[in-house]
Amino acid sequence: MRSTRLSLAILVVFALLGAAQAIATKPADEPFFSRAGNEGYNALHYEVRLAYRPKGGGIRAATEVDAMATKSLKSFSFEGWFRTDDGVIAVGEPQGTAAWIPCDNVPTDKATFEFQITVPDGLKAVANGRRTRSANRSNRVQMNWVEAAPMSTYLAVLPEAIRFEAGIFGAYPFDSAGSLVDYAPSLGYALESQSRPIYAYVPDVTTIVHETAHQWFGDSVGLERWPQIWLNEGFATWAQWYYAERHGGRTAHAIFKRLNRVPASDGRFWNPPPAILGRAKDLFDPTTYVRGAMALQALREKIGTEPMLRLLHRWTSAHRHGNATIGQFTDLAEEVSGRGLDPLFQRWLYQRGKPHTGG
Known about the structure:
The protein is α/β, with parallel strands linked by helices. The chain has nine helices and 13 strands. It is globular and about 70 Å long.
């Protein structure tokens, strides 16, 4: 397979704020990707123009970035494509977007996006947001997509899943919805791209429910730092369980009980704890998903279903199109339930090994 060639032309427009002269090269405080991001500016909008040529896999690209400098700058820094049978597909979590868009590649620096994509006639170009217009030019098609809601750079059928989840988590947070399904065995997974999840295979219902839940948990309510990815994956996995329970499947309690029979001696199943992932390679460890969802079910069984659903609704409303932390969630859980929950969160999120279920 030939590698995809990418050439970039970059235009950056800065609105400079009055401040002492400084060279803003210090990256944002991201523990797993210490060189990602830049504290010297805040990205506001990306206009991305792409032209794909199937023969040879070439992609011509130009990106215009509108950014607000947070200090006077003398210099600044910016931070995968996968071939399919008939084209290419791009994914970004956690660090892939910077391979093809010059960007401030940290979850906290959300911006709006506009994509202008040109492909040969017969192919379609799909991106985040709403399609605003298309035009045919010399056997090529140009399609424009706009994502008006602020989006993290890594996020770059739904009616029933959206209806069900909106009833629990609050109004769907974006002005368009859809999905992109392509056969991409070299990719091999699904990704919660904002407003349009990507599937490298035909997804089953539980996968659709999981990726749709990410529109609230991960896309609208974003992370402050990557080690807190439990707020994305644990919540989306619990949403799968609750959806199954409400649609004639196994209850979340039954799933919890079955998983909780895994013996304490199986350290690989129980570690690392979801809130203290020690290394970047732990980001997508099964504990982030499974033990993470078990933590939420343990919380539900402690405080009750109605307070749990009220908590999730308040969480997504309070941090809509923003970023949040585990500490903020645990504080809100105590506020909504009126109970002290620190022992439960310590057991399920922070302590190594199998949590005991008493208390």
